[in-house]
Amino acid sequence: MCTTILLIDNGSRRAESTLNLRRLAARLAERADEQILPVSLLHSDQIPADRLDGRPADTFAPTLLRLLAQGAREFVLVPLFFGPSRALTKFVPDTVAALTDEFGPFQLQIAPELCPLPDGEPRLAEILTEQVEQAALVAGRPAKRVVLVDHGSPIPEVTAVRRWLGERLAQRLGPRIKVEQAVMERRAGADYDFNGPLLEDLLRALADTDRSTPVILAMLFLSAGRHAGPGGDIADIIGRVESEYSGFRVHPSPLVGSHPGLIEVLLSRLNCVTS
Is 7 helix (H, G, I), strand (E, B) or coil? Predict the structure, then answer.
């Protein structure tokens, strides 16, 4: 029986995210010589089709239901997630259980996430390093202060992925460059201090310390969405802090999902469950 392969992300209401997912799926399909379906878990079905080249986005539960109704019974999911998000550990299994009640048993394998610990993924650290260097080149100054920023998660295992990557990024950049970490979202209280500081708070602290040395943001994001990309929350935060601290500059790196090396990482994850 033929196996259906899905490249899955969390989903976004921004068209740029779905279009990037489609680009990555097409490139992965070419490298793997397999058909790869780009599917978001949630949200993207709210994007008007005319912003997606006339083709509505596919989301996980309706797509799986449709494929099961057509007779498919073997699936592989390749996660476009850095760590073990609850989307993978709860949402997907809950959806599979509900559809099993309706269609009977079927096989669904989830490939490892992009940076599975404890071994991690050194190629992601190399991608981040290259993109920090690219952002510094655009800024016209060598990187001296770097902040690795991600969405933030209440799950320690997900935050551990950022910390692993941050340590490897610091090693690659060398001791003369200070690398710190921040999040876009975190829950209040000491129980969530493992997340680290909010990005806006950290940028203000860095500006208070030194306005003249720019900060490079190493963007641990795969696609443009609510936080990352033009018009996102990060751009708003940078604008606010720069306007309040004359002379202070923040330069975000490109997103991980734009780097050609990501396809090789995805191909490795796919091969983990198909080889």
Answer: strand
What CATH number is associated with residue 151?
Answer: 3.40.50.1400
User: How many C-beta atoms surround the C-beta of residue 105 within 10 A?
Assistant: 6
Instruction: Flag whether 251 is in a domain.
Output: yes
Q: In what order do the strands lie in the sheet with 107-110?
A: 36-40, 4-9, 74-79, 107-110
Q: Are 37 and 25 in contact (CB under 8 A)?
A: yes
Ordered DSSP codes for 167-203:
HHHHHHH-TTSEEEEEES---SSGGGGGG--BHHHHH
Same domain, 132 and 250: yes
CA atoms within 13 A on the CB side of 29: 14
Inside any domain, residue 17: yes
- C-alpha span between 275 and 108 (Å, rounded): 16
Q: What tens-digit pLDDT sequence spans the chain (275 residues)?
A: 589 999 999 999 999 999 999 999 999 999 999 999 999 999 999 999 999 999 999 999 999 999 999 999 999 999 999 999 999 999 999 999 999 999 999 999 999 999 999 999 999 999 999 999 999 999 998 899 999 999 999 999 999 999 999 999 999 999 999 999 999 999 999 888 899 999 999 999 999 999 999 999 999 999 988 889 888 899 999 999 999 999 999 999 999 999 999 999 999 999 999 87
Question: How many structural domains does the chain have?
Answer: 2
From the number of C-beta atoms within 10 Å of its C-beta (0-12, 13-18, 19+), residue 119 rates as exposed
Does one domain contain both 151 and 80?
A: no
User: Domain limits at 58?
Assistant: 4-111
pTM for this model (two decimals): 0.94
